[in-house]
Design a protein that fits this description.
The protein is 40% helix and 31% strand. It contains six helices and seven strands, in the order βααββββααβααβ. Strand 2 and strand 3 form a beta hairpin. Helix 1 crosses helix 6.
Length: 134
């Protein structure tokens, strides 16, 4: 049975990613050796301002709506930037360099979390194929 399509940054999209993160063995394993709370804020889209988080630590990885607690890092960006990065039309590093993604918080914690982001990219890929970006 095929998975239903979801609109980018909708509650259904957040729920789909939450389920994928919870089922991801590599993220759970990384949560034994990494701790990071990441909040993502996207403004100006069809849902208005959307805030969601990834929380990794103590052997658990969780994704959901709202602010990470504790929050180590916060990313803020506009809808068009978020869509461009999510659809791989804009490199995330280039978006940082040009100020289209604003970073707040513990940059060292962010660098330590590189393996978490690598695993998360795989999770996002599973949902990306059924996501509508309009």
């Amino acid at each position: 049975m095929s998975q239903p399509r979801v609109r980018y940054l909708s509650l259904e999209w957040i729920d789909a990613l939450s389920a994928e993160v919870a089922a991801c063995a590599s993220l759970t394993e990384l949560a034994n050796s990494h701790e990071v709370g990441i909040t993502q804020v996207v403004d100006g889209g069809p849902e208005g301002k959307v805030v969601y988080h990834l929380q990794v630590g103590s052997g658990r990885a969780a994704f959901g709506p709202g602010v990470a607690d504790p929050e180590h890092v916060r990313f803020e960006q506009e809808w068009d930037t978020a869509v461009a990065v999510a659809t791989e039309k804009l490199n995330a590093q280039q978006a940082f360099i040009t100020g289209r993604i604003r970073l707040f918080g513990d940059q060292a914690k962010l660098q330590e979390s590189t393996p978490v982001f690598a695993a998360l990219d795989t999770v996002f890929g599973t949902v990306r194929a059924r996501t509508d970006y309009v």
